[in-house]
């Protein structure tokens, strides 16, 4: 697959069949995240890999409204935290790492989904960051960006194209209003 094909094929996959992810595959996904660009190359991310089914179950309850429920059937999760003291652009840096891991996972035949952690609440009223910190033990000054769920895909939605968006969302030279 060439890069554009990988980008068109990438989708959020929230249902997984039983089965483990090979260590080598998981390591490639992690490597992709660690190769992401970061402001001043500070690399503020600290990735916590979870494979224990009990812990995955606990993490699946980190978001009000069930937005993380797919973690209960995932084979693994990569929890992306940052040492925010290292840089003021840790959210951008961590988003880059998330995106590269998500894309790589998809291209390698895994199902994965971005689960937002930052600015989101747990069902008990705490922030998702506090809830996840209690389970995983990252330090007080580490911030939670997001969690990438990973598993063997039960289904994979169709590839997308951005043909319409190329007309509507791209403004050449100047913004001249929305084209209807
Ligand atoms: C910043 C961000 C936060 C997201 N948060 C969640 C989430 O908490 N739970 C979830 O199921 N999907 C989440 N998603 C996945 C989006 O819902 C998904 O990317 C979008 O619907 C487009 O679908 P696609 O990824 O299949 O193209 C998130 C995606 C991004 C980029």
TrEMBL record:
It comes from the Bacteria. GO terms for molecular function: oxidoreductase activity. InterPro entries: Nitroreductase, Nitroreductase-like. It holds the Pfam family Nitroreductase. The keyword Oxidoreductase applies. SUPFAM superfamilies: FMN-dependent nitroreductase-like. Residues 7-61, 67-151 form the Nitroreductase domain. Keywords: Oxidoreductase. Belongs to the nitroreductase family. This is Nitroreductase domain-containing protein.
